[in-house]
Amino acid sequence: MNAHAPADHGVAADGLGAGDAVLAFDVGGTDLKAALVDADGRIVELTRRPTPLAGDRTGEAVVAATADIAAEFRRAHPGVVPAAAGLVVPGHVDEETGVGVFSENLGWRDFPFRDRATAAFGIPVAFSHDVRAAGEAEYRLGAAAGFRDVVVMAIGTGIAGAIFIDGTLFTGGGMAGEMGHSRVADGPDCACGGRGCLEAVASAAAIARRYTALSGVPVAGAKEVLARARTGDPAAQRIWDSALDALALDLSHTVALLAPEAVVIGGGLAQAGDELFVPLAQRLDGILTFQRRPALIAARIGEDAGVIGAALRAREVAAAQAAEPARAVR
Amino acid sequence: MNAHAPADHGVAADGLGAGDAVLAFDVGGTDLKAALVDADGRIVELTRRPTPLAGDRTGEAVVAATADIAAEFRRAHPGVVPAAAGLVVPGHVDEETGVGVFSENLGWRDFPFRDRATAAFGIPVAFSHDVRAAGEAEYRLGAAAGFRDVVVMAIGTGIAGAIFIDGTLFTGGGMAGEMGHSRVADGPDCACGGRGCLEAVASAAAIARRYTALSGVPVAGAKEVLARARTGDPAAQRIWDSALDALALDLSHTVALLAPEAVVIGGGLAQAGDELFVPLAQRLDGILTFQRRPALIAARIGEDAGVIGAALRAREVAAAQAAEPARAVR
User: What is the CATH number for A172?
Assistant: First the structure.
């Protein structure tokens, strides 16, 4: 899906239910995804385009791109008038102040996303963290529903998670769930400045990058590395196995500390299905002793969880706005 | 303090304040500690004796020993009549059912501590986990007070922690805070059946044991290993350094996942003071990049935190009992 395209999102989109029409934006390391949701909770249109990278002006470029998309949606669907927008981004996000504190992949520091987006759209904006928003979508509408203590991990370009404790999302002041930057090995170097971070070993991007570094063979992504491992390519097997080892080790720490009932895994790597989940569970069983192994479950909403989470947040803001007009953001 | 002795517990004991008189027992891997607290919140008597180890009958032996001590307290202090008792033990504890599910150091499985102790004492009994009770004492009366997100770790015979999230103790169904059994190295073997667990590398007991294994020299404890490291003993330095490395690595995982504001460290190893806290903070700074390094703080209540936590729990049960006599446990 590289341009505007009608969306078919099954369970998740149906699950949004009746409410305000909203705009939703999920800014990823590679793509910017946008959705227009109507009052029935249907995704009227979903579009994806490359995230505009402009060094330390990426924040401005992102807001400008979202405003362009909002205008396109307005022209294409004049009957759907959004009451609020949701904008979610990666990195360290301060939801209270609406500021993108830092993203090592996208380059901003202390960029006031909520204020700029509010000015650009002319409607109230909910600003949040991409993985936490995706986690909330999985928790409210997807695979994490029904658990009290559950971690929702996204493994794609990066690795991060949303932690639900006693049924409530725990943000840790915007800094919790950064298991992608837990040290699990002696290397390689990570974009964060660390060494041997989980994300540098086992993210989908790292699996592709490390395979190419080892074999000299360029690949389109982790999916291709897995396909090569399946056919007996020893370099691909080595990279895939080391990624599984690193993920299992990190999960074992999460289990020791938090004892979650379940770990829901989404993001590109989860598309490997049983080839990921079965050996991961085996490795985790091999590390754990007396601890309960959490259920390892594939995310159900999948790659659109971030934008759906952004829509959920936007609806919260719209509802709060309607309830308290005196505190209007506009 | 090896027999009955008057206690002087400063801040902590004063901090208990007015309330019901209670009995409090903290069953450790080595010692069983008991306290009688009066209505002013003073520890009238505190006693410590070896934990009675009787294989798979250790649960019964522990309850019998606590009943003996209760009788001794009754004879010695007839004017202090406890309204409830608090009993805390290590391992996997199910607080709801009052059952000690499992302790790898003490050998019980599914032992109904609360029911047996209630029958033995004739007063209501609060049953809980030693480290979580100690953590609550530090949270309510000690070094963890004032933080919303804080981990209280006890490093002694074993390693475990109490996790406070948004100001509330998180138990994870009795299984959270077992970072002592996070794998941080390739070895040595751990009592839990695992390999390279933090507890097998960096607990006070492991530091002494590993030093003796490496050097052939028996030592009384981790304190002596540190003293030898200080005088240039290379084996002692190697063991001490590897313990610090393991603790820093484990803390870095905790920080990535939970981003606590502070980590309070108690237990025997915390008595090393700056020789523990300064190099630990340096090592943690060396691993972390964008993450906030939590304040590393020595526990204030110290070695009696478990028994004081047990007293706090006993007072809760006594208060609940007074409020709802129809639901009396007696």
Answer: 3.30.420.40
Residue B90 pLDDT greater than 60, yes or no? yes
User: What is the pLDDT, as a whole number, of residue A160?
Assistant: 94
Overall number of domains in chain B: 2
In A, what residues contact B, Cβ < 8 A? 92, 102, 104, 149, 161, 163, 165-166, 168, 170, 172-173, 175-183, 190, 192-194, 249-250, 252-254, 256-261, 287-292
The whole-number pLDDT of residue B275 equals 97
- Chain centre to alpha carbon of residue A325: 31
Q: What pLDDT is attached to residue A44?
A: 94
Best A148, A153, A190, A257 residue to mutate vs chain B (most B CBs within 10 Å): A257
Rg (CA), chain A: 20
Spatial CB neighbours of B137, under 8 Å, sequence gap ≥ 6: B12, B301, B305, B306, B308, B309, B312
Q: What is the mean pLDDT of chain B?
A: 92
Kind and range of the H or E run holding B165? strand B159-165
Determine, for residues A253 and B288 on separate chains, whether the beta-carbon distance falls below 8 Å.
Answer: no
Q: Do residues A225 and A260 share a domain?
A: yes
- At A31-64, the pLDDT tens digits run 999 999 999 999 999 999 999 999 889 999 999 9
Cβ contact, residue pair A179, B257, below 8 Å: yes
Mean pLDDT across the stretch B318-326? 80
From the number of C-beta atoms within 10 Å of its C-beta (0-12, 13-18, 19+), residue A207 rates as buried
- Chain B: residues touching A (Cβ < 8 Å): 92, 102, 104, 149, 161, 163, 165-166, 168, 170, 172-173, 175-183, 190, 192-194, 249-250, 252-254, 256-261, 287-292
Coil vs helix vs strand at B139: helix
Are residue A80 and residue A197 in the same domain, yes or no? no
Residue B192 and residue B281 share a domain: yes
Distance CA(B179)–CA(B176), nearest Å, equals 8
- Above 70 in pLDDT, residue A90? yes
